[in-house]
């Protein structure tokens, strides 16, 4: 079975801190994604990566950056955390273009910024 | 950008009843997918239906797709308490890589 793991289930950070969220997948998937999920807004795409060192902005990239140095690992970075970044963060991966294949999700990281 | 929109937003039924959720979308698609999310967890893929398919079954799940109406429905037959979750439809986005998710239908199945 495909496994997508995220470094933390719950995280509490202070405003202004630099925050790293890590995601690892074990199925040699090409594509990896970061979403945030908020009540009433559903899932919104922050960034995705279709290859090592490649990244593309999603719908809400402001305040975030990403890093993909290895195929299995995709990191989301909050350069200076703010309270409006309190959210559930979901990582996902897929084999190739989603015109053909489904995405596999990690369990999520619930981030609280105080 | 969110393209899919589920209806209803919330649904409450009793065990043994069928649950039907609908999804409407705006632009042409290659496929439409349904996912389930248990409270506080990640999403789990349920079923993928391609644009040239009209109906697909998987266990107690039945998905239909009407591309002329830009809509899909997910039917869960003989619901169980364990089916309590949020259900999302997702369509392939313009990039071909990312998915566009709706806001979900929250299903509550009571014993």
Instruction: Provide mean pLDDT of chain A, rounded.
Output: 93
Task: Give the helix/strand class of chain A.
Answer: mainly beta
What is the residue-mean pLDDT of chain B, rounded to a whole number? 92
- Reading the helices and strands of chain A in chain order gives EEEEEEEEEEE
Question: How is the secondary structure organized here?
Answer:
The complex is a heterodimer of chains A (114) and B (111).
Chain A: E1 4-6, E2 10-13, E3 19-25, E4 31-38, E5 42-51, E6 54-57, E7 64-70, E8 73-78, E9 87-94, E10 104-105, E11 109-113
Parallel strand pairs in A: 2-11
Antiparallel strand pairs in A: 1-3, 3-8, 4-5, 4-9, 5-6, 7-8, 9-10, 9-11
Chain B: E1 5-7, E2 10-14, E3 19-24, E4 31-37, E5 43-50, E6 55-58, E7 61-66, E8 71-76, E9 85-92, E10 99-101, E11 105-110
Parallel strand pairs in B: 2-11
Antiparallel strand pairs in B: 1-3, 3-8, 4-5, 4-9, 6-7, 7-8, 9-10, 9-11
């Amino acid at each position: 079975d495909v496994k997508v793991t995220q470094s933390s289930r719950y995280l509490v950070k202070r405003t202004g801190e630099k925050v790293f969220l890590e995601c690892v997948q074990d199925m040699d998937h090409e594509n990896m994604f970061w979403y945030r999920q908020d009540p009433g807004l559903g899932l919104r795409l922050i960034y995705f990566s279709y290859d090592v060192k490649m990244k593309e902005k999603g719908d809400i990239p402001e305040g975030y950056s990403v890093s993909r140095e290895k195929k299995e690992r995709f990191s989301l970075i909050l350069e200076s955390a703010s309270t409006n970044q309190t959210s559930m963060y979901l990582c996902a991966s897929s084999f190739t273009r989603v015109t053909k294949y489904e995405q596999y999700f990690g369990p999520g990281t619930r981030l609280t910024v105080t | 950008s969110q393209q899919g929109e589920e209806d209803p937003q919330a649904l409450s039924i009793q065990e043994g009843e069928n649950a039907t959720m609908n999804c409407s979308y705006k632009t042409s698609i290659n496929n439409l997918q349904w996912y389930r999310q248990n409270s506080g967890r990640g999403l789990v893929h349920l079923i993928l239906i391609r644009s040239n398919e009209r109906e697909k079954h998987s266990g107690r799940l039945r998905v239909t797709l009407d591309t002329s109406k830009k809509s899909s429905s997910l039917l869960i037959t003989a619901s169980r308490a364990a089916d309590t979750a949020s259900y999302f439809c997702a369509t392939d986005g313009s990039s071909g890589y990312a998915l566009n998710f709706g806001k979900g239908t929250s299903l509550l199945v009571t014993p």
